[in-house]
Amino acid sequence: MAAQRAGAAAALPANRRHRGLPRAVPRRAEPSRAEPGAAVMAAAIRRLLRAGGRRGAALVAAAGGPGSQTLRLIYTTTAAWKKNVAASGPEKYTEAFIKKQIEEFNLGKRHLANMMGEDPETFTQEDIDRAIAYLFPSGLFDKRARPMMKHPTEIFPEQRKIQWGEDGRPFHFLFYTGKQSYYSLMHDTYEKLLNVQKHQDQLAAQDLPPQKEKKNLVGSRWLTKTELEEMLLEKLSDDDYSRFIQLLQKLVMMPCGNIEENYIKKFSREISAQLQKVVIEPLKYDEQGVAFSTGEGARKTSRATVTVYDNGTGKITVNGIDVLHYFPVLQDREQLLFPFQFLDRVGKHDMVCTVSGGGRSSQAGAIRLASAKALRSFVTEKEVESMRQAGLLTVDPRVKERKKPGQEGARRKFTWKKR
Amino acid sequence: MAAPSAAGLGRRLRAWLPRLTQVRWTRYNPSFLEPEVNKELYRKPWDELSEEEKEKQELRALQPIKAAPPSVSCSVFSDPMISKFTNMMMKNGNKVLARSLMAQTLEAIKRKQLEKYHKAPEDEKEKIECNPYIIFHQALKNCQPIIGLSNITKGGKTYQVPVPLKDNRKRFLAMKWLITECRENKHRRMLMPEKLSQELLLAFNNEGPIIKKKHVLHKMAEANRAYAHFRWW
């Protein structure tokens, strides 16, 4: 009877077969250790199955009692073996796999260096990028679609290790909340808050004034939501994120918040002073010895170039036409005068502009930006900074919002009809 | 519909939502601060600034600043209240017309006040206010209600509950009443500047239909005092 059943087993290709993981037990990353005796038996029966038979059969381990496993034959269809791609979530990589990838990458790096005739020891990532771009030229538009060779930690996203042990019991006490890192973070931060309160109470009990050295929040910002998600390796909702930031701010605002400075530092980043990178061009002089400076500006689809001359009477020419004729609307002329009025230089400069594209308001805005940029060369650094703080030197990023499918315009929806 | 499509486009635009989820988003990064256009503030030497102002200055020195909008300028003629009122008067985006109507209104106020000034005897001449901007601001202030009514449904019935109003809301209501009054209760041939100047002068003297409307609202709120405890905010 057993031989007949064994004879009926299918000669399926090896990969469709049961791999040695007992099917009745839930899937895990590491195979659970079956009893050695049962494994031997399983191997023997598997050999028999592979030898003969047509219909699909599988070997199932059933817990026959404590410490022993009996093996039963069940008949399944291919549908049961099909991998549920949607339910498995993002691809999970084992540590061994990542290690292997890193070894392969390092080896490949040395080969590439040899190929390019460079020294394998001092071959940096930039050299790799250049070599790949040379060997595999690609005209694809999206940079991320082109061939790339990067360290595996940059390619494979960092994933969490398995959060439960062999017995199925999770390691972290907040595992069953679903967001264990987030809640444990809130828990720790609140603990720090209570610490600070206790410290404050102690100081108050000893009648000492609370410490007033507040950490300077000026040059720092909190972590963004994406950065926090990367840190916790867990998805956060906006509400969760804002709650966490509120708690951090409460901690910082307390008088004795300096005690927990180390903890808070983990969640704040420096805002680098990116604003000092702008180089102001020096003044140029034309044939008559008059100082002038040029500037370019843009707003929506308008582009403007402006030359501001010194020793002027406040005359403004746009595209060869006088400003009163080109901009009949008062608001546009106010905008053109804005930078000059701000610096108290209204009748002192002449301006010659060329502008194209856009409508009347956007052309005026483009000329305003261009003239503000040109005036930087005439003016002290402090005044440039005050111009920046008045919003004269920032490019306005607002453009027309695109129309979306299923809606009539960018925001307007189609008329709702009940039937 | 706006939220999912915004999320798709917004990744490039870095739409970070600070408080509880908002559907509005801007092209600016949320770290950008509002521009400060008043040039007197920048002329002040460092020592005269108070502690708060110094901190604010330091913060602004490191943060990027948004571009100044086209309706704002540092000239003495640009006034935020008047810009707001002009925008509310504007129909179909016709800012040119709205601005010209506003200018004509202010001119009409000035003319009327000057007429009164020249006709008045010497001792009363000082009391007549000729500056149209001052008249406009005072009239709006006089029209602002202090307390408003809000519809709260409790136990199936909707009650009108007296509720304190925020500053923005007060200003908005005053301007809205003014504009609706001028659009509706006038003779067909009368033009907007004339009617508006009339209403503003009446409001400046605490008379007129808008002040009456404000008083009616206050009386209703007083009458519904009993339901004040329905408010939970």
From TrEMBL, chain A:
Chain positions covered by the region annotation Disordered: 1-35, 396-419
The species this protein was found in: Aythya fuligula
Any one GO molecular function term: RNA binding
Protein's name in the database: Small ribosomal subunit protein uS9m
Low complexity bias spans: 1-14
One Gene Ontology CC term in the entry: mitochondrial inner membrane
One GO biological process term: translation
Superkingdom: Eukaryota
Automatic annotation (TrEMBL), chain B:
One Gene Ontology term from the biological process aspect of the record: translation
Organism superkingdom: Eukaryota
InterPro entries, alphabetized: Ribosomal_uS7, Ribosomal_uS7_dom, Ribosomal_uS7_dom_sf
Gene3D superfamilies noted in UniProt: Ribosomal protein S7 domain
Cellular-component GO terms for this entry: mitochondrial inner membrane; mitochondrial small ribosomal subunit
UniProt-annotated location(s): Mitochondrion
Keywords noted in UniProt: Mitochondrion, Ribonucleoprotein, Ribosomal protein, Transit peptide
Domain Small ribosomal subunit protein uS7: 70-225
PANTHER family: RIBOSOMAL PROTEIN S7 (PTHR11205)
Similarity-based family: Belongs to the universal ribosomal protein uS7 family.
Stated name of the protein: Small ribosomal subunit protein uS7m
Species for this entry: Aythya fuligula
